[in-house]
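Supplementary Note 2. Why include the ligand at all?

Several targets in our set were suspected to adopt different conformations when bound, so apo predictions alone were not considered sufficient. For every target with a known small-molecule partner we therefore ran a joint prediction. The input for histidyl-adenosine monophosphate is given below.
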Amino acid sequence: MIQSVRGTKDILPDTVGYWDFVESSFRNTSHLYGYKELRTPIFEKTEVFSRGIGEGTDVVNKEMYTFHDKGNESLTLRPEMTAALVRSVVQNSLLHDSPLLRLWYFGPFFRFERPQKGRMRQFHQYGAECIGSPNPEADAEVIFLADSLFRSVGIDDYNLFINSLGSDESRKTYVAELVKYLKSVKEKLSDDSILRLETNPLRILDSKDNNDISILKEAPVIIDYLDEPSKIHYNEVIQLISDSGISFKINPRLVRGLDYYNHTVFEFQSSILGAQDSFGGGGRYNNLIEQLGGPSTPAVGFALGIERILLILEQTNKLRQSESSPQVYIVTANSQFIKHSLDISNKLRNKNIRVMIDLQKRSVKSQMKEANKIGAKYVIIIGDDEINNGILTIKNMQTSEQKSVPLNSIENFNYI
Ligand code: HAM
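The joint prediction is reproduced in token form.
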């Protein structure tokens, strides 16, 4: 037997309804905010991500599924969407027709990480990006959207952490100060953090090493290095979120794992998840569009991990399936009447009613059992008497109530 690849998972027919429910709730909520879907290919030229996400990041350095195709082109399975989406926006000149774009996406992503609960090598994200506004209201809008998405599926208990990385200049000044401090305590840092001191010092703030964490308590914080415009933007975002009633905490050490961020960064966490407690995150990326060859355009967005959202829903008993099980099951008591079953089922489907029939010519008992198992609300029984009299019996499986309905108007019954 050939097994699936480590860190990937089949979504089986019994659970796909949970996915479908989240996807359709997210789709509807996106439309409430005027966001339109964008779909891009699963793979891109490697430079989309190496240039977009940054050479010093774990995603680019360690986690990308990069390969050379038969034409010797370096391609990468997308590890995230923002860089790919910006590539598409620039290539298709979408900003030309509409200087403000509100876009959302849903799909599989790939990162070579060590699999564990909530961490997969193929995982799924929903994301939204608001491109074209430098204003704090855009930051607020995407956070409102995220909160509405959570509520649409039943998540109302989560932590939102916010920070600002400021403009490029304030970030540069801060990083220099941070490196100065960390170099002064270098011998106490973990090996990983010593390496990052050269490659990506900001990420040291994210270290999970206990020793590093205590050293970081004394480290300078970025807020103290924000220039005036960055401070104003940040304070306005904070004010708008406070006014909306969404609760949040300021986390001056939140930096996020991708290089394109500046100004606002935020993350959604849930203690239910254990080690992988972050189920979504995002922020501003005012330079990325220009960096990938487009016009200088401010943008802000976020992405949510669907596997982690489903874990939260499962652990809080909030999992819901979208409606897909048949409303009606037709029991054919005499297999020579299967033609009638086919005919009736088509009539009902034309009326938008979900119907299933027995294709194995089994006993009435087995068919009733199946109707029960699949959760059909009604059963229509077709036997000799029914066909001879032209009157069918419809049984409500929840109440066991039975009704007689003429065969020629069977599709007009209310099966809801
Ligand atoms: P990210 O924080 O790298 O951000 O990923 C967003 C979410 O995807 C995470 O919070 C997590 O829930 C989920 N995720 C990431 N890696 C895995 C994994 N290996 N297994 C399961 N879930 C995972 C981004 O990707 C940015 N593009 C977000 C963004 C959009 N920023 C601005 N716009």
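Residues 97 and 388 are 66 Å apart (CA to CA). The mean pLDDT is 95. Comparable summaries for the other entries are listed in the accompanying table.
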